[in-house]
Give the backbone structure.
Amino acid sequence: AKPRKALGVLKAMEKHARDSGIETYRTPFGWCKQFSLSIKGHPLAEQLHIISSAEKKDKDRVSRAVKAEEKLKSEWFILQPTGKMTPVEDFDFANHEALKKL
């Protein structure tokens, strides 16, 4: 971008951040050679960045997946060599001490 256009974009970003309540600093234009953001993770994850003050509000929300997980009921069975599945609470662990530890 041409310097005038780039400076306009930087000032607009600064204004938007300040208006959103984010503490913001800007170096004099031309003093820094690059602007970079980095995150941990897969290199392709760095291709998309969404920076929003709305993220703070979303942290308190519980996702649908977590809510659904709370409703799940786990059932455990012992699969016997005969193919019979016995609920773990009904299985006789008398001769299966190692299995009982699991």
